[in-house]
């Protein structure tokens, strides 16, 4: 039952983060949907680490070259998702308020992704099967 409560809490946090991103795009004073491209980074972020976990030996830990490369790619994606709204705001494509809302959404969504992989990445969990 505790796993269900954790999953519901993570779903709620993820929806709050996405609400910030959608508000950055849909509020009448901002009216540009360019910040919504960070959702692509949300989808791409966990993929290198998930692939590397399938291809590394469980006894090797996190020191394998495959896992190190995956962490490097993941951090590049994460930094890019924070840099995109800042670059768009500096180029006057979007307003700074939309940039701040997108950055707040980024923090919440990435903490949600981190929480999911921290809480539900145990081998005895039902969520780890996929």
- The end-to-end distance, rounded to whole angstroms, is 20 Å
Helicity range: over 70%
**Helix-strand string:** HHHHH
> With helices defined by DSSP (H or I, 4 residues minimum), what is the helix count?
5
Q: What value does the Rg take, in angstroms? A: 17 Å
Mean pLDDT: 86
Shape: flat
**Beta-strand share of residues:** under 5%
- Poorly predicted runs of 5 or more residues: none
Structural class, please? mainly alpha
Kindly state the number of beta strands: 0
Main sheet record: none
Oligomer: single chain
Question: Topology, pairings included?
Answer:
Elements: H1 2-26, H2 38-44, H3 47-55, H4 65-90, H5 96-119
Helix pairs in contact: 1-5, 2-4, 3-4, 4-5
Concise structural overview:
The protein has 130 residues and is mostly helical. Helices cover 70% and strands 0% of the residues. α2 (38-44) packs antiparallel against α4 (65-90), α3 (47-55) packs antiparallel against α4 and α4 (65-90) runs antiparallel to α5 (96-119).
Please give a structural write-up.
Keywords: Membrane, Receptor, Transmembrane, Transmembrane helix. Pfam families: Vps55. Belongs to the OB-RGRP/VPS55 family. There is one protein chain. It is built from 5 helices and no strands. 20% of the residues are buried. It is mostly helical and 130 residues long. It has helices spanning 2-26, 38-44, 47-55, 65-90, 96-119. Helix 2 (38-44) packs antiparallel against helix 4 (65-90), helix 3 packs antiparallel against helix 4 and helix 4 (65-90) packs antiparallel against helix 5. The longest helix has 26 residues, at 65-90.
